[in-house]
């Protein structure tokens, strides 16, 4: 049995969480070069995740339900907040600012966890209800995350 839309996206959340944990660990140790490599891997994976949701999943949900000013609008707004925090993390890393990196990292992690929880418990199930088992959509989402 192949994975569902919700499972594929939830698995990718976990992969992103693990990438972040490595970046945070290296930065906490003051190993800035390695932290930089890990942060890049994390933000690249997140960039793929956020843009796949914004360009593939959310438009499909919006088209199927006619709902544009609801949950997907909130999720898009939170994506922008996350992107801003990724910028702050990159700046703190470039400056080897441990306190700044830790502070931005804590804010980012709380926001990302709340965001992902809302998606996993509300939006992804709502997408599955609205879109059914759309194999072509699932394929486009999986391809976007890679
Ligand atoms: Fe999202
Ligand atoms: Fe997500």
Short recap of the structure:
The chain has 146 residues and is mainly α. It is 87% helix and 0% strand.
Structure overview:
By secondary structure, the chain is mainly α. The protein has a single domain (5-145), classed as Four Helix Bundle (Hemerythrin (Met), subunit A), CATH 1.20.120. The protein has five helices and no strands. It has helices at 5-28, 32-65, 71-94, 98-131, 135-145. Helix 1 packs antiparallel against helix 2 and helix 1 (5-28) runs parallel beside helix 5. The longest helix has 34 residues, at 32-65. It is elongated and about 45 Å long. The model has no long low-confidence stretch (mean pLDDT 97). One fe (ii) ion is lined by residues 50, 53, 75, 79, 115, 119.
Domain count: the total is 1
Proportion of beta-strand residues:
under 5%
Helix content: over 70%
Question: What composes the largest sheet?
Answer: none
Q: Residue-averaged pLDDT, rounded? A: 97
Q: What do we call the CATH topology?
A: Four Helix Bundle (Hemerythrin (Met), subunit A)
Query: Which CATH architecture?
Result: Up-down Bundle
Estimated radius of gyration: 16 Å
Shape: elongated
Structural class: mainly alpha
Say how many strands there are.
0
Give the cofactors and ligands.
fe (ii) ion
| Tally of helical runs | 5
């Amino acid at each position: 049995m192949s994975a569902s839309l919700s499972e594929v996206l939830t698995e990718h959340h976990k992969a992103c969480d693990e990438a972040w944990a490595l970046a945070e660990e290296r930065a906490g140790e003051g190993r800035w070069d390695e932290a930089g490599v890990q942060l890049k891997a994390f933000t690249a994976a997140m960039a793929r995740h956020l843009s796949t949701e914004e360009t593939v999943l959310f438009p499909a949900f919006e088209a199927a339900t006619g709902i544009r000013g609801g949950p997907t609008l909130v999720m898009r707004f939170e994506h922008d907040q996350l992107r801003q925090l990724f910028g702050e993390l990159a700046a703190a890393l470039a400056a080897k600012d441990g306190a700044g990196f830790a502070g931005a990292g804590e804010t980012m992690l709380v926001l990302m966890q709340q965001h992902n929880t809302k998606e996993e418990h509300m939006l992804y199930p709502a997408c599955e209800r609205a879109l059914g088992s759309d194999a072509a959509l699932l394929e486009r989402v999986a391809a976007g995350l890679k």
